[in-house]
Write a structure and sequence with these properties.
By secondary structure, the protein is an alpha/beta fold. It has two domains: 2-156, Leucine Aminopeptidase, subunit E, domain 1, CATH 3.40.220; 172-495, 3-Layer(aba) Sandwich (Aminopeptidase), CATH 3.40.630.10. The chain contains 15 helices and 17 strands. The protein has helices at residues 26-34, 38-45, 82-94, 116-130, 159-184, 192-200, 214-220, 223-229, 284-298, 344-359, 373-378, 390-402, 414-418, 437-446, 484-495, and strands at residues 2-6, 11-18, 55-59, 66-73, 103-106, 151-155, 208-212, 237-244, 254-264, 304-314, 325-328, 334-337, 363-368, 383-387, 407-409, 427-428, 455-459. The longest helix is centred in the middle third of the chain and has 26 residues, at 159-184. The protein is elongated, with a radius of gyration of 24 Å. It starts with a strand and ends with a helix. The relative contact order is 0.12. The structure holds ligand BES, manganese (II) ion and zinc ion. Residues 264, 266, 341, 343 line the site of manganese (II) ion (MN).
């Protein structure tokens, strides 16, 4: 969908802002005057609140250059931030995308905490994110299911500054779309090799992409990663994506590591049938890392960043690993695999170690759809954050907050670490107790982080995809692309020259 900035003109639908309590912001006031007070009248008639996302729909009278006027709330203007503007624009798109309208005109106003240029740029961002669809495989859509909206125009004065910001931000949208597409793809289309092929496309942006095959990983001693993959007919891949944008060419990179289980049946510890299809999204961590690399390379970030994604399919089968198997990791440590469904931590054990061994990073952040327990604890609104470094944790919390991808920190500790000691190997991959499941997963990964390396683990099992109906207008499908914006912002605020 095309998003443009204009200073005047008409369209099928125009969207304007109102604040909580129902006061009209300037663009809405002007339209109210032009329509002889119809907006104020309609607001009264339906008890419009102006709360974020609340809306009224007014058919425009003759003499106005639109057919339909949408008044959408931004909430309390004093507390509205740039995310409120994005959601305002997102609601406008959601209400028009399949309506038959071809052109939507947004008239954002400045708010006490959002300048006019920011409001314009975030309106563009919100409109783009909200117009995401995954309908590549739908060959028989009815006209009313098909997107009619072809263009969004942001109408405002001072377009130059807003347009400049929005052009930069479109790199972020590209990254989010990339991640959403990867998460949405079914596992018969997206498997380790085809995933790796898609990551090769990042080379056109100047990212150095390296794909490790099974013999190479065998030589490196990645027994934990390969143990998970051995039950599948699809061979595993480990892909590294290197972006060297800092002027300090040799400067240490930040390493982003992603869990990429292209389908998680559970393996021999097989999952129940209900909703197992959702395990096509068990590569959301890898998708977030790939999307972040796409965003930072597209906007030519002045930072050194390396992405490492472990790509496997977890299947039962004649060659699958068994509960009780003991595997050797690249780090030299051994793991007793008591549950083949706790596979994410197994592949991350080798991927996190490899990232440190190969790239000597200044910090490591891994993202993974690791545990169902994080959904029990935090639902679908916050991801779980674990970290061994206060500054890194605080920076991640702040980045998530400002980008609408919040994280909530959970503890680590020696008592939890003890829960994965095993009499038969250096550790076991589950505690065997129905307690602190997400923390135990984090403690396991921590055993593969070298002393002195700042590390954070983000459990995105609840946020990488969301059950419908999809409340957040910026994320209109099951796959959210969660993590791309957080990582991009973290790099921009902490790791750029
Ligand atoms: N991929 C799952 C976690 C998951 C669950 C992601 C629901 C998204 C939605 C992971 O591999 C898994 O199976 N974890 C187990 C761990 C357990 C065996 C210790 C779980 O959460 O039950
Ligand atoms: Mn699993
Ligand atoms: Zn999994």
């Amino acid at each position: 969908m095309d998003v443009r900035f204009v200073t005047a003109g008409g369209g099928d639908v125009v969207a304007v802002m109102a604040g909580e309590g129902g006061q009209l912001l300037p663009a809405a006031q002007a339209l109210d005057a032009a329509t002889g007070g119809r907006i104020a009248k309609a607001m009264k008639a339906v008890r419009f609140t102006g709360g974020l996302g609340s809306a009224i729909d007014v058919l425009a009278p003759e003499g106005v250059e639109f057919s339909r006027i949408l008044v959408i709330g931004v909430g309390k203007p004093e507390s509205a931030d740039s995310m409120a503007v994005e959601r305002w624009a997102g609601h406008a798109v959601r209400r028009t995308i399949t309506s038959g309208a071809e052109k939507l005109v947004l008239q954002p106003d400045a708010l006490p905490n959002v300048s006019k240029a920011e409001a314009g740029a975030h309106a563009a961002m919100g409109a783009r994110l909200a117009s995401y669809r995954f309908d590549a495989y739908r060959t028989k859509m009815k006209p009313e299911q098909t997107a009619s909206l072809a263009a969004v125009e942001i109408m405002m004065d001072g377009t130059a500054a807003a347009r400049a910001r929005a052009e930069k931000d479109s790199a972020i949208v590209d990254g989010v779309y990339f991640a959403r597409d990867l998460v949405s793809e079914p596992a018969n289309v997206l498997y380790p090799e085809s995933f790796a092929e898609r990551l090769r496309d990042l080379e056109t942006l100047g990212v150095e992409v390296d794909v490790l095959d099974v013999p190479t990983m065998e030589k490196l001693g990645m027994g934990a990663l390969l143990g998970v993959a051995q039950g599948s007919a699809r061979p595993a891949r480990l892909v590294t994506m290197k972006w060297s944008g800092s002027s300090a060419k040799g400067g240490k990179p930040i390493a982003l590591v992603g869990k990429g289980v292209t389908f998680d049946t559970g393996g021999i510890s097989i999952k129940p049938a209900a909703a197992m299809d959702e395990m096509k999204g068990d590569m959301g961590g890898a998708a977030a890392v790939a999307g972040a690399l796409k965003a930072i390379a597209t906007r030519k970030a002045k930072a050194n960043v390396v992405g490492v994604v472990a790509l496997v399919e977890n299947m039962p089968g004649a060659n699958a690993q068994r509960p009780g198997d003991i595997v050797h990791t690249m780090s030299g440590q051994t793991i007793e695999v008591l549950n083949t469904d706790a596979e994410g931590r197994l592949i991350l054990a080798d991927a996190v170690w490899y990232a440190q061994d190969k790239f000597d990073p200044s910090a490591v952040i891994d993202l993974a759809t690791l545990t169902g327990a994080v959904i029990v604890a935090l639902g679908h609104d916050h991801a779980g954050l674990f970290a061994n470094d206060e500054d890194l944790a605080n920076a991640i919390v702040a980045a998530g907050q400002s980008e609408g991808e919040p994280v909530w920190r959970l503890p680590l500790g020696a008592g939890y670490d003890k829960m994965i000691d095993s009499p038969n190997a250096d550790m076991k991959n589950i505690s065997g107790k129905p307690a602190a499941g997400s923390i135990v997963g984090a403690q396991f990964i921590k055993r593969f982080v070298r002393d002195g390396v700042p590390w954070a683990h983000i459990d995105i099992a609840g946020t990488a995809s969301k059950p419908g109906p999809y409340e957040d207008p910026l994320s209109p499908a099951w796959a959210t692309g969660y993590g791309v914006r957080l990582l991009n912002r973290l790099i921009a605020s902490r790791y750029e020259d």
